[in-house]
Each structure stands twice: as structure tokens, then as C-alpha cells.
Amino acid sequence: MTGKTAPPATEPAPATPKKEPVPTPKEEPAPAPAAEEPPAPEHPPATEQPTAPTDKPAPVPMAEVTPAPEEGPPAPPAEPQAPAPEPKPEKPKAEPPSSPLSLAVEEVSENSVTLTWKAPEQTGHSGLDGYVVEICKDGSTDWTAANKEPFLSTRYTIQDLSSGDKIHVRVKALSTSGASVPATLEQPVLIREILQLPRIRMPRHLRQTYVRHVGDAVNMMIPFQGKPHPEVIWTKGNQPLDTSRINIRNTQKDTIFYIREAQRSDSGKYELTVRINGAEDKAILDIRVIEPPGPPQNLKLVDVWGFNVALEWTPPVDNGNSEIKGYVVQKSDKKSGKWFTVLERCTRTSCTISDLIIGNTYSFRVFAENACGLSQKAAVTSGVAHIKKTKTAYQPEKIPQRDMMEPPKFTQPLTDRTTTRGYSTHLFCCVRGFPQPKIIWMKNQMEIREDPKYIAMIEQGVCSLEIRKPSPFDGGIYTCKAVNPLGEASVDCKLDVKVPQ
After folding, report:
1. Which terminus of the chain, N or C, has less C-beta within 10 A?
2. In the predicted model, is pLDDT for residue 212 greater than 70?
3. Mean pLDDT of the chain
4. Quick one: angle between helices 2-10 and 12-19, nearest 10?
5. How far from 424 is each of 325, 418, 474, CA to CA, in Å?
6. What angle do CA 412, 413, 417 make, to 5 degrees?
7. Is 385 helix (H, G, I), strand (E, B) or coil?
8. What ranges make up the beta strands (E) of 91-154?
9. 223 with 253: CB under 8 angstroms?
10. Which of the pair, 192 or 416, is modelled with greater confidence?
């Protein structure tokens, strides 16, 4: 039976589409039927089959599978829905930046307040768009923005405030992901002018005389402090400054003194006064404009003797508004015509030049020198100095003869010594005398002659006796005797030779 029932099972499969209306399979390609395929076994063709093949439920799913390839055209619309069951993970939202740090009040005036802060630790991937400063009057809860557009600076001055008001201030950091938690001042700020007495903060290098060269620019900035904005007054000799030569520019915190090209007439003491409502502070600025000095005056060739020449002169009439540090003296011989410096920084107005060459004729000139440098011109001697050849007879100096004869005398005696058996030892003493004395060494009053055990030497008056590898027998009294035609001298010492235990 089962073998016979198999063919009919395959025949009804194609029959099912005939019983069902044709529009039904065309409607299944819609997006919804793709998920409703399981109810297919409830169709009437499955129920019309005989009860005998009830143990064969397999044909029912086959009937569902077989129509799919037959209805090929509707299948393509179902393919775009394949990725639909896999939902894509949502991207995490970017976090806003953290709060600005170290919010503080830098300065308060009668109608403004200046704030400073530091950038937040976390700014996000997109970075900061800027900051917003908000204010709120004390006792109110209405916060208003002080700036129209965000800015990136960490310093801001809130203007147009009313004197005497108390305001709360907070700052927010903005980015594309939103605004940060605001940084708020703990205490309200009282808008009022903080009085401060005037004070000039003179730079260290301007506390002493300020020296410049003629033609140089003079540009000095002198800071001061005081609130409200002080009045700044410059004078020279109790007279206002010449604005045609000196430019003065004042700000709230400093004053600038400027001269484009300094002249000697600009030298002097300038007085700076900073005044607020009767209170004032003063400072003196001493400026000295210098230039090279003039040439020395009245240069004279005073004397010529042997290889030497004496010169004299007087200081220059114009010292260049600076103290003369010295003079530079130069010489020139007639043969070469070149000038050579013989003296530098000569502090006197006279000098002697030596080591001149016999037979040459020399001219001399002198420059003056100050802090700005050498004078542009020099004073030149009107005459020349001719070094003549002179006949000189050498007369040797008579040195009186001195009697150098001296009998021997020991300047350093012998000293007692103790040595160990088998270890060489030395005896030393010093002697002087002229003629050089003869040295004789003795042991126990017996002269030591040519014995290889003893080595006697004398050098520069130092006498030495080496005893090589002594034994207890070599101990005793050693004598050094010096003899010359004028006399003799001797010194003794004791030598002990110990045997190690």
C-alpha cells in the first residue's frame, strides 16, 4: 500500500495550485507572507487526501517547498528583507564637555568685572565651540548671557554693570554634543571701584643713569598701579616736555617714553608723577646721551734721548658728555708711514715711549677715549723725533771679590736609626764648606773603605750611606767626617739591627 500511495502523493502536489486561486500565490510574495509560511499545512488540499496515508505527513511540507521553485518570479521581492532581522547597534551619544576649571575674579571696577578660568579636562571628540558667561543678580533666579556668541578665550570682561550691584557669575563650555555643567563662583561679586594708591614700579635698569648714544632711539616703558585711572605727568626741570621731540603714551597700567633720535640736549633728569585725587608718587629718570669726545689738545714732543721720547698733552675741550677713560698713543716711522699703537688706556696726560729704533724718525698722535669710543680725530705732534746713533763705551761694573772660603760645617746631623735584619737602610746628613770637603765614613771609629756592603754618595752637600742587607754585626756607632784645608767636622749616630722573632 505504501508503494502505491507514493505516486498519488506526488500527483496532488501539482494539483494544489490548481484548486487554489491563482492570485493567492501572487499575493504571498508580499513582505508579510514570508514569515507566515508555517500555516500552509491548513490548506484544503491537505485535508482532502485519504486517511490511509495519515502516517505520511512528509508530503505536506514537500507540497510547500515545491511551489516555491515553480513560482520563481515572486521570489526576488523577498530577498531585500534578509538583512532586516539583524538590527544595527545604535551609536552612543557623545557626552558634553566637563565644567571649566578654576573660575576666579581677576579685576573689579565700578561698572565691569573681569573673569578668568581654565579649559575643562574633557572637551569631547569634536572639541569646544566656545564658552558662555551668564550672570544673575543676587536674590534673583534669572540667568542671562553676558556674551552674544561663544568665544574660545579663557578671560572675559563683563561690561555695563551697575555700581553697587551684587551678581552671581557662571561659565559653561559648549560643544556640538551640548553644554557642560556650569562653573559658578561661590560668592556673589560686588560691583564697586577698589581704590588703590598710586605707585610707580620703576624697572631696575632705569634706577641708575640711562645712557644712550647720539642718534639712538630712547624707548622706555614704566609700569605703575593705582585705581581709579591715575593722572600721569612728565616734566623736565619743572617744565613740560617738548612734544615735538618726545612722545609720551599712557595706558591704564604704564607710560611709554619715546625719542626717535636722541641728541645731547635730551640729557637730563626727567620727573614722572602719577596722581590720584591728591595722592601721588614720583620718580626721577636720569638720561645721558653721549657721543665720542673731541681730540686731545696741545700735544708736545717734550724730550728725545737714547731710544726714548717724552710726550705731553691736555684733555679735549669736549668730552662727549662722558668721562674720559684714557688715551691711546700711536707712533709712525718715516720709512713705513704706518701707525702702530704703543699705549692703550693711558690715564695720564703724559707718557714716555721707549724701545725706539736707532736711526729712524718718528711721528706721534694721541686719541681720547670715553664710554662711546675713541675720538674721531687725533692730536698729532708738530715735530718729529729722530733717534740718533750715539757712541757708548762699555764699562763693566767692578764687583768686589768676596772670600768664599769656609771650613766644613754640618747643617743636618745624623740621626739614630733602628732597622731589621736583611732590610737595607740609609744614613743621611748635610754639610757645607769651601773648598768642597772630603767625606769619610767610619764605623766604630774605623774607616769604611771599599766594601761592597756600603755605598757612600754626596750630592749638593747631602751625604748618604747605604748599608745593604745589614746583620746584627753591622750595628754600632757610625761617623761622618768632613775635611777640607780650613778644618774638619764630624757627626755620629747609632744603628741598631734587630732580628725578627
Report:
1. C
2. yes
3. 82
4. 40
5. 70, 11, 11
6. 125
7. strand
8. 101-108, 113-118, 130-137, 144-145
9. yes
10. 416
Q: What is the pLDDT of residues 2-32, one digit of tens each?
A: 343 334 433 444 434 444 444 444 444 444 4
> What CA–CA distance (Å, rounded) separates 295 from 413?
72
What distances in angstroms separate CA 34 from CA 17, 25, 26, 45, 227, one per listed residue?
A: 18, 11, 12, 21, 85
CA nearest neighbour of 356 among 381, 388, 379: 388
144, 153 in Cβ contact below 8 A?
no
Are 320 and 294 contacting, i.e. CB atoms less than 8 angstroms apart?
yes
* Cis-peptide into 8, omega within 30 deg: no
The residue among 85 and 388 whose pLDDT is bigger is 388
Q: Assess contact for 489 and 408: CB atoms under 8 A.
A: yes
Distances (CA, A) of 490 to 375, 412, 413, 445, 486: 77, 11, 9, 11, 14
C-alpha cell at 424: 737595607
Q: Write out the three cell numbers for 175.
A: 560643544
As a whole number of angstroms, the distance between CA 459 and CA 452 comes to 20
Residues whose CB falls within 8 Å of the CB of residue 55, separated by 6 or more in sequence, listed in order: none
Predicted local confidence at residue 345, as pLDDT: 87
Contact assessment for residue 124 and residue 94, using Cβ atoms and an 8 Å cutoff? yes
- 61 sits in which H/E element: helix 59-65
Quote the CA–CA distance of 259 and 17 in Å, as a whole number: 110
Q: Give the pLDDT of residue 16.
A: 40
Measured distance CA(173)–CA(386) in Å, rounded: 92
- pLDDT for the residue numbered 383: 87
Backbone φ and ψ for 33, nearest 5 degrees, come out as -60, -25
Question: What does the angle CA 471 – CA 472 – CA 473 come to, to the nearest 5 degrees?
Answer: 85
Q: Alpha-carbon dihedral of residues 271, 272, 273, 274, nearest 10 degrees?
A: -170
| pLDDT score at 14 | 40
HEC states along 192-236? CCCCEEEEECCCHHHCCCEEEECCCCEEEEEEEEEECCCEEEEEE
36 has pLDDT over 60: no
